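I have been asked to look over a protein record a colleague put together. Alongside the sequence sits a line of tokens, each denoting a local backbone shape. Please read both lines and tell me whether the tokens look consistent with the sequence. Take the sequence as given and treat only the tokens as open to question. I have pasted the whole thing underneath without changing anything:
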Amino acid sequence: MVFTGGEGPSPGIARRLAAEADLVAAADSGLAAAEAAGIRPRWIVGDMDSLNDLSRLSAYPADRVFCHPHEKDYTDTELGLSLLWEKGCDEVWIAGGGGGRVDHLFALRALFERERTPRRWITARDDIWAVDAPGVLTSGDLVPPGAEGKAAPVFAPGTIIAAAPLGNGPWKATSTGLKWPLDNVQWNRGFFGASNEATEEAFSVRVEQGRFMIILPLGEVYDGENN
């Protein structure tokens, strides 16, 4: 998991997420967010132009900190993702990146259109997943770590769920437990399935062709983990 700047999960949720990660990195001001949650990243990368206190870096071994020039071809988040992939991670999550400048938001969204993509993006409010065919995302997959005894499903009826095609088509998805099933939707580039709703406590989205972005409300999964 890579922490990045912008609005991200609360400290309590961040700790829960980090507990699932084999490696944690911080991109620039993502270091402050990680440390606010009591998390010490293994790697720190970026141009450090947004880090509020550069003295933070002195607490880490020099060989764990990769400083880049401000004028560079890649965003700090991209550098963090690349580092984790280089270290052998086959699934990478982003924590942060909500709010702020719209070009930064669009740049993060664009990462999910590429051949190699993050699996998950967690902001202050949203839990965003990329699902490639053949793949499925169910409410049972979203039970937080440490809550294995909690019976899935974890979503209340009426929970807003959105879906959108990513990358290159064609796209096909099926669903269960949604007010407007995805089974017969003819997806095209630029389409967006906004404001769908869970009609049952359990739901699933199965991707049969292409890649989809599934957007869920973070608080529904990590209720009570804000502090």
